[in-house]
């Protein structure tokens, strides 16, 4: 990997994007730990959480009195319960939803029940195989 050669240069973002496209999307457990015979485990004492999903991320964000997590955005909600709303620029308005995940980015809005959040990777895979939607990946 040649990323380190380009850090701080005008080509940094391009090279990072190119190199990350070459990486298999697998966890360190499968990609490294199960293939090595030279790993070392060092006991330590700190709090750890693998923030690999929106549902694990919400454990670190503040909730309102209705169990909603509203992060990085303005939101107007009415009768909304146990819903995570994450945005960037726009006002996010929601009425009467429960146990949902709503994520608004520059070019994509994701809405799904929290109990289906593990299906996001399946949807991303489907989108990446659709030529007309490839620009969103």
Give a structural overview.
- With 137 residues, this protein is α/β, with parallel strands linked by helices.
- The chain is 20% helix and 18% strand.
- It is built from four helices and six strands.
- It has helices at residues 12-21, 28-31, 54-57, 120-128; strands at 69-71, 75-78, 84-86, 92-95, 100-104, 109-113.
- The strands form two sheets. Strands 1-3-5-6 form a four-stranded mixed sheet, with no helix packed on it.
- It is globular, with a radius of gyration of 19 Å.
- The two termini are 22 Å apart.
- The model has no long low-confidence stretch (mean pLDDT 89).
How would you describe this structure in keywords?
two-stranded parallel sheet; alpha/beta; 137 residues; four-stranded mixed β-sheet; 4 helices
Instruction: Estimate percent helicity.
Output: 10-25%
Would you tell me the overall average pLDDT?
89
Assign an overall shape. Answer: globular
Query: Which percent range describes the beta-strand content?
Result: 15-25%
